Amino acid sequence: MDLNDVVVLSGVRLPIGKFGGSLRDYRVYELGALAIAEAVRRAGLAPDEVDEVFVACNRQSGNGPNPGRSAAVLAGVPATVPAHTINMACPAGLRAVIEAAQAMQLDECSTAVVCGMESMSTIPHILTDARWVPARSGDIVIRDEFFSMVEPLSGMRPTELAEHTAAKYGISRAEQEQFAWESHQKAARAWTEGWSAAEVAPVEVRSTPATAKEMLTADECIRANVTLERMGQLKPVHPGGTVTAATASAVTDGAGAIILTSRRQAEHAGRRPLASVVGYLQIGVDPQDMLEGPAAAIPALLDRVGMNLDQMDVIEVNEAFAAQVIANERSLQWDRSRLNVHGGAIALGHPTGFTGVRLVLSAANALRIHGGEFAMISVCGGGGLGVAMIIRAE
User: Fold this and answer.
1) What is the dihedral sign for C-alpha 71, 147, 248, 333?
2) β-strand 52-56 against 83-86: which pairing, if any?
3) Predicted pLDDT at 211
4) Which one of 79, 82, 199, 357 counts the least CB within 10 Å of its CB?
């Protein structure tokens, strides 16, 4: 161990809200502010001890030029502390952790807040031609930005990429549904056992009357009682396909934050970290094979740090689709009993800018709860990206 190691001091996340659910009346920077303020409080820090704030957010339209900065200031971080917003598609949250770690390794800051946030419920409708086409001279098309998910390099939507991956690896619908069912069971158990509650801070539901204050205390999308039979009744997203709503990550709202500092700083303050950062890596893949990003990033990172996958006690891979995780599993041959032990995005939801931060927090807590030493974290990304990180329990 080195006193210059980057460590995760603490972290917290909000319960993940379903699309149009309990968090729909929050702007994304308001969700981020709640997470940042609570993470700083749980770390025992004063806001002015924060040197910089790194915030991941993908769906920024309608939230100002730098929603990460808005979240930081609303959280009570002094206006003199810089903050910026990071967009790297689904790996954005993990990229934010990497940027903060790099800033520490360059001695540019000693304590950083890393936040991931996304509000899919507030993605706007836009009038792309209204500025140049007067309303009096013809139709104006209103476009739903929620559906602007065609990846320009591959020309495919996420569900089409999932079908491409399933066909490439011969992954059946039944296999995908079994995987999705397991995700819900693990997520439900994590709440039943109290494992998830420890990392979650309740949030007030704004849509209820002030006289009947209601709190969201748990993730909204987990279906503990879902059955394979019920999944089998759903229509595929694409005719003749294998991917359904049940085997894709849920569209959701969420935010979370972790505090990074140096081991030296943590020891000086008498604080015990959750985990330390061992290494990280980013890589590109063919855009059509973007869902296989972890299969490229994970071996490259293991090679860089001189480790092997068998040394990983916990493996956290974002569940964009069941087919995606199964494809990466076939390539890397990991032990599924170590995978997403508290459930994944199929059960919890995938607020895209937030997910990478959640994976780091969930992996650190899983190591603490179940007694492991190392965790591998990886996310695929639009355009053909793979990002991976290894952390070590403290």
Assistant:
1) negative
2) parallel
3) 62
4) 79
Q: Helix or strand or coil: residue 252? A: strand
Instruction: Verify whether residue 90 is a known catalytic residue.
Output: yes
Residue entry with tokens 């810089």: 82
Query: Under the phi-then-psi rule, with left for phi > 0, alpha for psi from -120 to 50, and beta for the rest, what region is 170?
Result: left
pLDDT at 142: 84
Q: Which residues pair with 55 in a beta bridge?
A: 85, 115
Task: Give the β-pairing of 252-262 and 6-13.
Answer: antiparallel
Give the model's pLDDT for residue 134.
65
C-alpha torsion angle, residues 388, 325, 196, 205 (rounded to 10): 100
Has domain 6-123+250-393 been given CATH number 3.40.50.300?
Answer: no
- Catalytic residue of the set 57, 90, 109, 115: 90
pLDDT at 149: 74
The reported pTM is 0.95
pLDDT tens, position by position, 43-69: 999 999 999 999 999 999 889 999 999
Active site residue 380: yes
Three-state DSSP class for residue 247 = helix
Per-residue confidence (pLDDT) for residue 139, from 0 to 100: 73
Instruction: Round to the nearest angstrom and report the end-to-end CA distance of the chain.
Output: 10
Catalytic residue among 57, 109, 221, 380: 380
- Cβ neighbors of 341 (< 8 A, separation 6 or more) are 186, 190, 314, 366, 370
Please choose, from the candidates 5, 1, 35, 2, the residue with its C-alpha nearest in 3D space to the C-alpha of residue 261. 5
Which residue positions in the chain have pLDDT lower than 50?
Answer: none
List the catalytic residue out of 164, 268, 350, 370.
Answer: 350
Whether 238 is a known active-site residue: answer no
The helix/strand/coil state of 391 is: strand
Q: Which of 44, 30, 38 is nearest to 13 (CA)?
A: 38
pLDDT number for residue 127? 83
Q: What is the pLDDT of residues 258-296, one digit of tens each?
A: 999 999 999 998 999 999 999 999 999 999 999 999 999
pLDDT of residue 135: 59
Residue 132, SS3?
Answer: coil
DSSP assigned state of 57: -
Tell me the chain's radius of gyration from C-alpha atoms. Answer: 20
